[in-house]
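Feature request disguised as a bug report, sorry. It would help if multi-protein outputs had a clear separator. Right now it looks like this:
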Amino acid sequence: MKKLLCLSLVLACSVAFAQNQDEEDKKDWGTLTGGFESIFQWYNDDTGLGKFAEDEHVRSNNYLKLDYNYGNWFAGIQVESYAPMPLLNYSPKLDDTGIAQYYAMYKTKKLEVTAGYFYEQFGSGLILRGWENRPLGINNSFRGGRIKYEPSNSLSFTALYARQRDGFEVSEGEIFGFNSEIDLTNVFKLEASSLSAGFSYVGRKEDIPEQVQNTGFDEMTNAFSARLDYSGNSFYSGIEYIIKSKDAVVNTQRYIENFVEPGNGFLINFGYFQKGLGVDVTLRRLENMSFFSEREASGNVFNENIMNYLPGLTKQHDYLLTNIYVYQAQPTISVPDPSLLKYGEIGGQVDVFYNFKKGTPLGGRYGTKIALNAAYWAGLRGDFNFTDRKADIDYFGFGEKYFSEFSLEVRKKWNRKWQSIFYYVNQYYNERYIVDKLGVVNSNIGVVESTYRINSRQSVRAELQHLWTQDDNGSWAGATLEFNVTPRLSFYVNDIYNYGNDVEDEQIHFYNAGGSYARGATRFAINYGRQRGGLICVGGVCRFVPQSTGLTVNITTAF
């Protein structure tokens, strides 16, 4: 608690300094900006879910970020406190209070030099991406040095050397990177379109453990990426190809004896758009493309040491029941036994958006918007020889079906006060291959949402949801009611009920009630209720959370 008080004192001093900035501008002392976030949870015993199994019921995550700028110079720190313990199912390495990140940077129009912690992404992130996502407990920033140089508007180069953040420490593995971006628009004298290319290299150097030495891979693992992007008046496209040198195959943080394989990835995205119509297609193939700054981190449940960005490419849903069976990318070769062989993934998704014009039979007075999404993912087809430890993988072969989904969304405005959303989702979810749980889930989900604007400041929103399935835990029903009192103040209650569970004691209501208040750059939110156990996903990246009941308080501010 003393550490939290110290952190609050630092925040107060920082805010006071920022508020007096206008008076000090004439002294040209530069500018200080920052933000603070605190997430507090109090976990309770629950007669429905059972006794809270951990010793510490009160936990909190706290983040204070400060950035200073003076002319071409920039500097910053991020102080973090996890007291008395981090939130449930965050990494146990987050067990301290102190300066977690810091940096100094010099930047001009053409040159940028950074020392300390930084985030970086090459291309789409398939080869390298460091990022922070606090709800998922992810902070995969890099600590080291980075130079960016733009000799012209058509050329951009980045070079870096770093180790990756690992709790309050850094990884054993060293990371080397180079990236180039080339604008080819002027080279080909394009007037109504643009064309660009990119080339990247990433190397990861880590000592080879004694137990797997002389098995056919080097300390340095090299990955290369090439990409090409085009954009015209109504059409765009992009293609990226990645290769990765031979490396040991690691499953659930354990080396597979004498099993060494290279990796590769292939990504295509293209689309067409015009007034009232949009089509987007994304296709991807991943083979042994897990990339960690420490090999033995592969498969860890806390998303630590991940060097690249491999989200599940499916529609990102907004509703509680549509997020129960969520697809996660399957880039890893995994051969635990002959009944469960995985060599990577292949598949894609298609999005279609269409607006029915106002005044037409389907458009009505205000028009109607529809969105269609279809996604299909399967494992790569292949064979594995357990004696020779060799995998024979087809490049475009579709193997075991992992996941498929079809969704239809209709948005309709009835009058100046009423508007509705109708949403239908059909899912196929192969639990055996996605989460290593026996069974396949076939489900249908329906959602009806309506918003009524009482006046220019107040509104009421209601949701009704239902998930039909005879598989896994059976069917669910859900509802939400939200009241926006003012643009700053809102309250809500929601509940999802697993009424179809075959085990009567597990037919549980997961209820929540809460609200939020915002003023300026400060927001306060509070809720009490039950957390459904399972995957929590943001942007196609997931982490597992257990069932729990308790109070959550969230405070964020920026200055």
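(second protein starts here, but nothing in the output says so)
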Amino acid sequence: METPIATNSLVLGRILKRQARYRPDHLAVAFEGERLTYAAFNEQVNRWANALTGLGVGRGDRVATLLPNCLEALATYWACAKLGAAAVPLSALLLEEGLVSLLSDARPRVIVSTVSFAPMLSKVRPRLGFTPGPAVVLVDGEAPDMPGHARLVAGASADEPAEVAQAGDLVTLMYTSGTTGLPKGIMHTHFIRAMYAGLFAATFRMTPESRVLQTGALVFNGAMVTMLPAFYCGASYFLHRQFDPQAMVDTIEREGITHIMVVPSQLIAMLGLPGFDPARLASLEMILSLGAPLRQVHKDTLARVLPDRLYELYGVTEGFITVLDRADAVRKAGSVGVPPPFYEMRILDERGRECAAREVGEIVGRGPVTMAGYAGRDDLTAETLRDGWVFTGDLGYVDEEGYLFLVDRKKDMIDSGGVKVYPKDIEEIACNHPEVREAAVFGIPHDKWGETPLATVVLHAGATVSAEALCDWINARVAARYQRVDRVVILPDFPRNAAGKTLKRDMRLPYWEGRQQKI
């Protein structure tokens, strides 16, 4: 006779309560000058959860954050987990129209923000079209009809709120980064986030003694990849207000940080610091790269100066991942690893048939973190989730051992005269030039071929190479004539979203709206 699994014990809010009981004096969170034990942080979260209850937040409600990295953002995530509400992290880079669109879709009961956003929120709230409209709480002051977080927390009880959440309840609503179109609200339940916590802790070898540093934006789903397992283990979590490569190195050395998560542009910035000394990072046990492909030239540098530490995660917020373990980083250079336990992966051709080894197709996967769907968009959910499988829209292949190699995003593929051109292949070549820091290749209109590749690059400080010389250098090294770039455009930096991902769409769009426009 089968024994039913008590899935309702997988409620995320229980993690913090447990650590406060069994590890009360262990350092939980450090942010700027403040250091909180698990007992103290849990009390702060309880007060905030009870203050939110006083504002009408209950099970099934949503609480939006429009914040930089701060303790209040972190506490809001955990308060929602205790209340059975869903946290809705929104980027502080949003403009008014984007904010109206996302808030109208999310329909939060409360918005937690800063004084700097108060004027915009005053204009936004009347445009949202649902009642009751959201209350706004400011973490760094007060404004008319917008109470201060500090006053609300000070007047709230530190008692544990009544547990009402269930494992299947929504705990986060994450809006997509927008690199491939209009944002969509991705629904994650307590069960899904509990799987993030436990499975990533094992994957990244975290322990209660681990010291985890987060310097990128908390609004980015990638932040959950290290934050949730850190609290699950009862480790210490160090938070920076924003990414600064020098501050990151200083903190790693001073605090004995063991685990960091970065996107490639942040890793490149760290390696490019004047006088970079890998000895200052000796405490690191994990350097996790995610969010975009890490170029092989940078992997080779890490293997030389900080060996046996690099993990690379490929994944989509919709709920499929692979991980290249640090033990395989050199042997399987170029790969993004394999699915963790309890995950499955297929590579499918355009007819839906499974591809042979080294045959390129769409990456399709499923596992315990597969999303519940896109909020209010059953049509889009049906396109991405088919029989429980996530169709990622990414192209790749597996080798004979089953390791995944990324080729490119399906939507980024260039069709030049009927030939498929993968931008990633050209980007890898461009990044091998000693004066190139980063490269992004995309298709632009061409009268004869329909599309042709254009390369945009960011150079290292002090570089002197010209766009014309770089174009010649790249075209002399591509594998086929159809991979030759039409030209190279040198930029001071790439447009990026809050997660640090390069927004190719923003660079490509002017060429398709009007061929004479420049980037």
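Even a blank line would do. Unrelated, but nice: The two ends are 65 Å apart (CA to CA).
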